[in-house]
Specification:
Blueprint (H helix, E strand, L loop, with lengths): L22 H10 L5 E7 L5 E7 H11 L1 E4 L26 E12 L7 E9 L10 H14 L2 E15 L2 H6 L21 H15 L7 E4 L5 E5 L5 H22 L1 E4 L12 E9 L16 H13 L4 H4 L21 E3 L6 E4 L6 E4 L8 H18 L24 H10 L2 H5 L2 H19 L4 H9 L2
Parallel strand pairs: 1-5, 11-12
Antiparallel strand pairs: 1-2, 3-4, 4-5, 6-8, 6-9, 6-10, 7-8, 10-13, 12-13
Helix pairs in contact: 3-9, 5-6, 7-9, 10-12
Length: about 475
């Protein structure tokens, strides 16, 4: 529940403020100095994780940096278990699951402190004619940023990442049948400054890993559920914010393995527990760098009202982008501090859209996205909805001053991924804001997610049947 502080976007990693130092020059210098002996090239998959390969520095500098590399195209068409899924145009059995070209974005170069001697670079897939692959998560966000740029608007975003820490490892969780995991601490320690030794040691190691990787932290805090923590980064350029979140997830897992701590970025890791990926949004006039939301009191500029109107109109039909799993919707229930309907208000955490701050620092907090959301598609959905509101001068309904959870007059959030998928498919708006190709790709991904869970028997089903005996 930390409140991020907005400011205009900063330059990306590996560049000076004037953009004069290239990532390639920096990497070459690191290799020459012996600080880097291998390069991990990674891309974002549909599940919000990093996939890729590790290369020798000579091969990377001589070949990959200039020409890219080829990986199997199924990286954008699998489930969480890396099983190929049917029906995707980007890769399928019918096309033989051929290769796709991935081009390094050397501006993303970092040297992760948790991987000594290794440089990490993010890569984007391109088509045979060197055009961005439209359905790739990072490219989806880039497209939305280009759309805002054409309108003379710059976005700044800050992400609040909530996740839950458990004792153990992936292997111990598997041996336990993924049941009865023990949180790293019991009960609410929200804003608590006295931390158990295991939590203190893990967070200290994670903080050192992040800051040692030039990932500037805003805050770390324990949260309101057993084992739950929250990490926030300062406001900045949205693509960089999403990249940072991906590196946070990677670091959290790697540091966890060394401390026998298992971090879960699940929306609802336990019944009644909700973890979100709250997004703080500011928009600026690109030329003047003046905030579009700046105001005092309860009078908002028209631009802020239009953006809120766009968010409330579009986010319901874009839900599979910001709540992509079956589990996502088990968070969007009363009692989890998550929104259950589409309303907005001033400094009101019961609302889906919360107006935060005052004056030039006034901004919006979008509390809908879940912890398991891919940050690229999440930010793309929010920016597309904001653009929709600005383009069409939409106005929101009256603000909510009380408890939005009990306000039955507000439109409810989707209660399941199946319901969210149907809303996406019957609306024409998603394809207007993105493309038909992008919408069909992620609608199909949501369909596969729903079907994977449809036939799985849960422990709760067995418990309820035994209770009848």
């Amino acid at each position: 529940m930390t409140k991020a502080t907005p400011h205009p976007p900063a330059p990306g990693p590996g560049t000076a403020p004037d953009g004069s130092v290239s990532g390639l020059d920096r990497l070459s210098a690191l290799v020459q100095d012996g600080a880097v002996t291998s390069v991990m090239l990674a891309t974002a998959n549909m599940q919000g994780g990093l996939k890729g390969k590790t290369y020798g520095t000579a091969h990377f500098l001589n070949e990959v940096a200039a020409h890219g590399t080829s990986w199997c195209g199924y990286l954008l068409a699998t489930d969480a278990d890396m099983r190929p899924l049917d029906g995707f145009g980007v890769a399928s059995w019918d096309t033989g699951y051929g290769d796709m070209r991935f081009v390094p974005d050397l501006a993303t170069l970092r040297t992760p402190a948790w991987m000594p001697g290794t440089a990490l670079v993010l890569a984007d897939p391109v088509t045979d004619d060197q055009q961005p692959v439209a359905v790739a998560p990072r490219n989806i966000l880039k497209r939305q940023l280009e759309q805002l740029d054409r309108r003379g608007i710059t976005a700044s975003t800050g992400l609040e990442a909530e996740f839950v820490l458990y004792h153990g490892t992936r292997k111990s969780a598997a041996r336990a049948g993924y049941q009865n995991l023990t949180p790293l601490f019991e009960g609410s320690r929200d804003y608590g400054l006295h931390q158990p030794a295991a939590l203190r040691e893990y967070l200290a190691a994670l903080r050192a890993a992040l800051t040692g990787t030039d990932l500037t932290l805003e805050a770390i805090k324990s949260e309101g559920a057993s084992g739950q923590v929250e990490i926030t980064f300062p406001h900045g350029e949205p693509l960089r914010a999403a990249d940072q979140h991906m590196l946070l997830r990677h670091a959290a897992v790697e540091i966890g393995a060394a401390h026998r701590v298992l971090p879960l970025f699940m929306a609802a890791p336990d019944t009644g527990v909700g973890s979100g990926l709250h997004v703080h949004l500011s928009l600026y006039d690109s030329e003047e760098q003046q905030p579009l939301f700046g105001s005092d009191g309860t009078d908002l500029p028209e631009a802020a009202l239009h953006v809120i109107g766009g968010l409330l109109a579009a986010m319901p039909v874009l839900a599979p982008l910001w709540a992509p799993t079956v589990n996502s919707y088990k968070r969007l229930t009363p009692g989890t501090c998550a929104p259950v309907n589409f309303g907005w208000g001033f400094d009101n955490r019961t609302c889906a859209i919360r107006v935060v701050g005052a004056g030039a620092r006034r901004h919006l907090e979008i509390r809908l996205p879940s912890a398991d959301a891919d940050p690229y598609r999440t930010l793309a959905a929010i920016l597309a909805a904001a653009r929709h509101g600005l383009d069409n001068k939409l106005l929101p309904p009256p603000r909510v001053d009380g408890n939005a959870v009990t306000d039955t007059g507000l439109p409810p959030v989707p209660r399941s991924l199946d319901e969210a998928l149907q809303l996406m498919r019957i609306s024409e708006l998603p394809a207007q804001l993105f493309t038909e190709e992008v919408v069909e790709h992620y609608a199909l991904a949501a369909h596969h997610e729903v079907e994977a869970h449809r036939v799985v028997v849960s422990p709760e089903e067995r418990r309820r049947e035994i209770a009848l005996l």
